[in-house]
């Protein structure tokens, strides 16, 4: 745990939260500043700043919880869908430096947009540029 992390303080019980699900590895609670009714955060209990800091077991536990919670949250608040997302790093809008997955229930006509809207203007990439990026990522994964 990190001494200066609000989510670690929630896990430790030092800060109250509206817990909706808990396992040995994962905690899920309602967002204190929700974007919609039922907006839930799912976090690993152990401190990890970025998605890449999660080991395979913890990543699996985290996303198993997300997969189980999402349809139940949608049903509970009678949502028409949900955005599920992770802001990984400050440049991506991560405000709390502890991995967390947002489950944001969505409703027809709520004025929200698709997850694609968070990235701003789309780059104009050629097929060669796309091929190069794909090759570089595949090579990095093989290392």
Topology:
Layout (H helix, E strand, L loop, with lengths): L5 H6 L7 E4 L3 E5 L9 E5 L11 H22 L3 E5 L15 E6 L20 H16 L1
Antiparallel strand pairs: 1-2, 2-3, 3-5, 4-5
InterPro entries: HINT, Histidine_triad_CS, Histidine_triad_HIT, HIT-like, HIT-like_sf
GO molecular function: hydrolase activity
Keywords: Hydrolase
How many angstroms does the end-to-end distance come to? Answer: 30 Å
Provide the β-strand percentage band. 15-25%
Count of DSSP H/I helices: 3
Name of the CATH architecture = 2-Layer Sandwich
Total individual domains: 1
Low-confidence stretches: none
Largest sheet descriptor: 5 strands, antiparallel
Indicate the structural class. alpha+beta
Q: Your description of this structure?
A:
This protein has one domain: HIT-like (HIT family, subunit A, 2-Layer Sandwich), CATH 3.30.428. The protein has 143 residues and is of the alpha+beta class. Strands 1-2-3-5-4 form a five-stranded antiparallel beta sheet, covered by helices on one side. β1 and β2 form a beta hairpin. It contains three helices and five strands.
Please provide a brief summary of the model:
The protein is α+β, with helices and mostly antiparallel strands and 143 residues long. Helices cover 31% and strands 17% of the residues. The protein has helices at residues 6-11, 56-77, 127-142; strands at residues 19-22, 26-30, 40-44, 81-85, 101-106.
């Amino acid at each position: 745990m990190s001494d200066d992390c609000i989510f670690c303080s929630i896990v430790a019980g030092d800060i109250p939260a509206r817990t909706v699900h808990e396992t040995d590895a994962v905690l899920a609670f309602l967002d204190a500043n929700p974007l919609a009714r039922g907006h839930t955060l799912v976090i690993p209990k152990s401190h990890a700043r970025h998605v890449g800091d999660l080991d395979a077991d913890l990543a699996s536990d985290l996303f198993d919880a997300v997969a189980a919670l999402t349809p139940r949250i949608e049903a509970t608040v009678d949502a028409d869908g949900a955005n599920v997302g992770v802001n990984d790093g400050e440049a991506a809008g991560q405000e709390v430096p502890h991995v967390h997955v947002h489950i944001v229930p969505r409703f027809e006509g709520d004025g929200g947009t698709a997850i694609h809207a968070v990235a701003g203007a789309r780059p104009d990439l050629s097929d060669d540029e796309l091929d190069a990026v794909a090759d570089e990522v595949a090579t990095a994964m093989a290392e």
